[in-house]
Specification:
single chain, Rossmann fold, two-stranded antiparallel sheet, 27% strand
Amino acid sequence: MTKMMQQDDWQGLYAERWGKDCVPAATEGHQAKFARALIRRIYDHAVQEGWLRVGDAVLDPFAGVALGGLDAMRLGLDWTGIELEQKFVDWGHQNIVYWNNLYADKLPRWGKAVLVHGDSQRLRDILPERSEISLLVSSPPYAQSLDASPNESTAFQRTKTGVIRPHYCYNPDNLGNMRGDTFWLTARLVLDQAFALIRPGGHAIFVTKRFVREGAIIEFSQQWAQLCQACGFQLVHWHKAWLVEHNGIAFSLDGGEVECKTERKSLFRRLYEGKHPHNAIDWEDVLCFQKPLTNSQNGAIIARR
């Protein structure tokens, strides 16, 4: 019997910064980071749902600077991340060493994390099929979200603290640099391999978001959900993690009512949405999928060892 999909709202997950839980180079050098409280909530949600137990294996095929590894280690899990960009791998390694030094002796069930420099298009070569993944947690890029050919004006960016940051991504093999059908065919290749590596009954959680292109909203979350379902995953939860916090109504000096809200968005996005309110991006989507328990070939129930 097919389970009803759960839909709900997650609030208040974007105010917390990474602070001491991330080395400075990774904080400033990687723009597309998990929000600190959001990734913690995702892992705690998976535990509460009974999807994880101590010692389970977790995978992130788009691992960035390994920020998904911290809460996996906190919960005693075995986390593996795959990342194509060498500079992110270097910063991710620094994070893992830093976390081990900071927390390994202080928490009773500290796990382990490994960040591999590789291309998730060859995921099954990196992680042999004998691997049994209980949970995949990742945030995929969308098509053309990066810049594979920076010019002199974009090759380096100066951060708020004056650090010179290399441009986000040069590699044309990065999924975020691909266009159109090439993007979706490559994403399908990665997801098919991930599906094969996840144990029957295991889960995959993706953080996605709608985006604006050429003045129109692109429903990337819905597109990604459809692709996951085409690969065999069953959608079980759809959470909206709100970037906007509504704080009630205040009265102005002239007696009018003013909505009080806090928006956890970049200044550029807030300015853009001030001019184009119909293109507001007010939440991220947290999509939870399950790999069916039944073997598609013979219909047998596969028990977890």
